[in-house]
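User: Working on a comparison across species. This one is Glycolipid transfer protein domain-containing protein from Manduca sexta. Can you predict its structure so I can line it up against the others?
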Amino acid sequence: MNTCTACQGTYNETLAEFHPWYIRKAATLAMHALPNRPDLLKKIFGTPESLEAALTILPQTLASCDEVYKRVEQLYTEFEFHELP
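Assistant: Here's the predicted structure for Glycolipid transfer protein domain-containing protein from Manduca sexta:
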């Protein structure tokens, strides 16, 4: 899957429902300007050594992000923030 397709899928599953039609179309259009995966990783990490180091810690990073997401969701549910307009 290319970067554009991955981003569009994620956007459609998360934020798209909160945006009006013209914002959704603009976001989709902007996603077509994203670089492919290898170019994106090169821009983010620079050298191949930096990329290798980042990929080494990626599983722990994802686990930490997942834990943060779960805690925030729990708080939103507990304090009924999902019901806010």
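For your comparison, note: The chain has two domains: 1-34, 46-85.

User: Helpful, thanks.
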